[in-house]
Structure formats: structure tokens, C-alpha cells
Design a protein that fits this description.
This protein is of the alpha/beta class. It has helices at about 5-10, 20-30, 40-50, 70-85, 90-110, 125-135, 155-165, 180-190, 215-220, 240-245, 290-295, 305-320, 320-340, 370-380, 405-420, and strands spanning about 60, 120, 140-145, 165-170, 195-200, 225-230, 250-255, 265-270, 345, 360-365, 380-385, 385, 395. Helix 10 (about 240-245) links the parallel strand 6 (about 225-230) and strand 7 (about 250-255). It is globular, with a radius of gyration of 22 Å. Bound molecules: pyridoxal-5'-phosphate. Pyridoxal-5'-phosphate binds near residues 123, 125, 150, 232 and 253.
């Protein structure tokens, strides 16, 4: 059946028009998703996989970079955009503002904080930079960072230090992960009366180290020091509870682990920190509650995408966030166990389950990682990320709840093949 025939069939059945048959199929699969069993089996996770439009033979192990959006997200994005473009009057668009506020409410529930503390941004990069530009730091003040951050949380602080005159100091990040206590101790020793802010990455994108965010936030709070936790790799993967972690600022992106639309993100600003940060952008159309009234006036937004972001959060909540975290960790452990048996592979990610989650990096002997990743994609239909340079170079696999054990087996078999025969 071609696309037009399929569209006609759905229209005859009185179903709302759709963008493509794949999205209609994925949306229908989402409606049929069974309640998550106490111990979800492979069949359950295959039905989760059905909600995505990726072709069956494609194995994407790159959640740390960008995740696919599910059928419900794509369908909402399309239907809401179509509605807006069919009637772009202000009267018709008025309802979109309520949809955006609903996403704020869902985000607050998701992170266990209040809507008054949520700013819907474009991505983690923007959220991190709103913090490093907005906090009032001056010569004599110091920011402490872990050495292994994304540029939006590292280069950004270094550049702003040049402009505002404060200093930046790194806490070294040994490999393999030395344990949570090492970092609590390192920060405790590094803090001086000059320290005004600590910024860490919750889960690193490089080798997947977990940092003890709650403990570091606590020791900072006890000393009146602000904290920024970069949650790009934890938001939508962990069952993050900010009411427990209590950072001053937390950032995340919709397009990563939450499987939401592109160019949507979150900045959490703790109510206790709202008087300690200036907004950087002033324009029309801010949010309606709390800090979003001053921090979210970014001018015209893609409100259909913001509404679709809410659908992504609903799907994760429906499946169960603890289940999602457990599943992603289980697949990572299976990958580590398989890769450990492949001669010549050096795994950078911690062998300790409590120090890692679902980001796994390894060096495939002396193989050229760019060539290897190209072959994995072209020949084996496996998508992954590469890391060049001298610092823990190699391949990164980051599986998520749409992956299966068949994907894991396929990736291990492919690595065995290339390590034995070269690329
Ligand atoms: C730890 C970390 N922070 C920030 C970012 C930036 O995310 P985005 O490109 O969505 O702004 C990334 C992206 O990979 C990341 O891994």
C-alpha cells in the first residue's frame, strides 16, 4: 500500500490526517503499549522500540548525542504545527501558550520541583550559558569545575572569566573513575573563601563517569556556594529528583535521553538562587509563572515543539523512569561484558556499576576509529560516536530504552569481526 492509499484509508476511517505512515504506525503502537510489567522482558522493550520510526535493521547506540523522537512526539509536533500554519491568527494560536505552560508543569513534575523554577530553553548549551553569563561574579571570585565538562560548561566559564575577571580552577578527573568519595574530598579540599560557584557534569559524555551531584551540592550549599549541574546526560536517563539533589541550577536537552523534539531544553533555577542570577535575554512572550516571567522572554518560540516536549516526558513517565534507567544500564553492562572478551579492546568507562550508567567508551586497539565507525554504520547498520585526539580516544556506545539485546549482540559481533580482521 503506498502512502496516498494509506492516507485515504485512514481518512475514510475518520482518523486525523498524519504526516507519514511510519509516524501513524509509531503513534498507534504507542496507544497499544501495555502497562510496564514489574520485570519487563524483551517483548515489552520490543513494543517500546515500535514507537520509533527508525527502520528495524538500524541500531542506534548514540543516545548521548541525539535520540530519535517517538511517534507521539512527532505526531504532536506535526499536528500542532499544521494547525498553527492553517490558521496563524493570534486567536487560534492563543491555546499554544497554555500548551507551553502544560509542558512546564510536566517538566516540574518530571524533575520534582515547581513550575515556578523552570525555564524552557533551546538546549543544555543555552541553559549552561544563561548561568555563566547571569551570575554576578567579579575579580577575586573563583569557579571550581570538574576537568571533564562539555565546552558549554567549560569553555564557557573560561571565556566568561576573561570578560568578568573571576578565575576558574579545575578538579582533576582521573581515569578510571576513582569513586564518589574522591570527588567529595577533592572539592572539600579545593574550596576557598573565594569559591563562589561549583559546576559539574552529572554524567560525562566522554567516558560516562557519574559525579556525586547530591553530595557536592550539599557541601557547596553548606558553604553558601552556588552549584550548576549539567544534566545533558542524566535528564531523561536517570530518575532525576532535584528536590533531593538540591542544585541551584540544572540544565538538560529535550533531544537527548528524553527523546523529545530538537531545540528544546530546560534550565532549573532553584527558588533560593533566583535573586542571585540576572536574565540575559529580554524580549516579548515570556513564560507565565515564576522565574519564566523574567528568564523566558526569548521572543517568538516554536510552541508546537515545546508542546511535543511534554509528550516525550509523558511517554517516559508512562513507561516508568526507573525502568528506563534500569534497562539502559542493563544493556550497557551487557555491552561491557561482551567487549571485555574482545582481544585488544580497552574500556575507559568504569567497571563499577555505581560509577557509570549508559555511556560507554572504549579504545578498539590500534584501529582507526573514524574508519571503524564508518564501517559500523555502512556495513553493520550501527550508529555510534567517535572520540579522536589523545585523551581517552575511541568509540562511544550509549544505548537507551529503544535498544534491545539483539542490538547489543550485533554490536559485540561487529567489534569482534573488526578487531580480528581490521577495517
Ligand atoms: C555533558 C554535556 N553538556 C552539554 C551538552 C550540550 O548539549 P546541547 O548540544 O543539547 O546543547 C552535551 C552534548 O552532548 C553534553 O554531553
Amino acid at each position: 500500500m503506498n502512502r496516498r492509499e494509506f492516507a485515504r484509508l485512514l481518512a475514510v476511517g475518520g482518523v486525523v490526517p498524519f504526516v507519514t505512515p511510519e509516524i501513524a504506525r509509531a503513534r498507534a503502537a504507542a496507544e497499544k503499549l501495555p502497562p510496564t510489567p514489574v520485570s519487563p522482558d524483551e517483548t515489552f522493550w520490543m513494543s517500546v522500540r515500535d514507537q520509533f520510526v527508525m527502520p528495524k535493521e538500524l541500531t542506534i547506540l548514540n543516545a548521548a548525542n541525539l535520540c530519535p523522537s517517538s511517534g507521539p512526539v512527532l505526531d504532536t509536533l506535526y499536528q500542532t504545527t499544521r494547525d498553527m500554519d492553517q490558521d496563524p491568527s493570534q486567536e487560534n494560536r492563543a491555546k499554544l501558550g497554555a500548551g507551553r505552560e502544560n509542558t512546564r508543569k510536566l517538566l516540574a513534575e518530571f524533575l520534582r520541583v515547581t513550575p515556578e523554577e523552570i525555564v524552557i530553553t533551546r538546549n543544555t548549551s543555552e541553559s549552561n550559558n544563561l548561568v555563566s553569563t547571569g551570575v554576578d561574579l567579579k575579580p577575586g571570585d573563583e569557579v571550581l569545575l570538574t576537568a571533564d565538562n562539555h565546552p558549554s560548561n567549560h569553555t564557557a566559564w573560561q571565556e566568561k572569566a576573561k570578560r568578568f575577571g573571576f578565575t576558574v580552577r579545575d578538579i582533576l578527573v582521573p581515569n578510571p573513575h576513582p569513586g564518589a568519595e574522591y570527588y567529595v574530598d577533592a572539592f572539600t579540599k579545593a574550596i576557598t573563601p573565594k569559591t563562589k560557584l561549583i559546576s559539574i557534569t552529572h554524567l560525562t559524555s566522554t567516558v560516562g563517569d557519574i559525579f556525586p551531584a547530591k553530595e557536592i551540592c550539599r557541601l557547596a550549599r553548606e558553604r553558601g556556594i552556588l552549584t550548576l549541574v549539567d544534566g545533558a546526560q542524566s535528564f531523561g536517563l536517570f530518575d532525576v529528583d532535584l528536590s533531593d539533589m538540591q542544585p541551584d541550577f540544572y540544565s538538560g536537552s529535550a533531544h537527548k535521553w528524553p527523546c523529545g523534539p530538537k531545540e528544546n531544553g530546560v534550565l532549573y533555577i532553584n527558588k533560593n538562587a533566583q535573586s542571585k542570577i540576572y536574565a540575559s535575554i529580554f524580549s516579548a512572550y515570556p513564560g507565565r509563572v515564576g522565574v519564566s516571567r523574567t528568564f523566558e522572554g526569548f521572543g517568538q518560540r516554536d510552541e508546537p515543539a515545546m508542546i511535543a516536549f511534554g509528550e516525550a516526558l509523558k511517554l517516559q513517565t508512562q513507561i516508568g523512569r526507573a525502568h528506563i534507567e534500569r534497562r539502559s544500564r542493563e544493556l550497557t553492562t551487557a555491552l561491557i561484558e561482551g567487549l571485555r572478551k574482545v582481544d585488544g579492546v580497552k574500556i575507559w568507562t568504569s567497571p563499577e556499576a555505581s560509577r557509570r550508567a549508559a555511556v560507554l567508551s572504549f579504545q578498539p586497539g590500534s584501529l582507526d576509529v573514524r574508519k571503524l565507525s564508518a564501517s559500523l554504520y555502512k556495513t553493520d547498520r550501527i550508529g555510534c560516536a567517535t572520540r579522536g585526539g589523545q585523551d581517552r580516544p575511541g568509540i562511544r556506545f550509549s544505548p537507551h530504552f529503544y535498544n534491545t539485546h539483539a542490538d547489543v549482540d550485533k554490536a559485540i559481533a561487529a567489534m569482534k569481526k573488526y578487531m580480528a580482521t581490521g577495517v
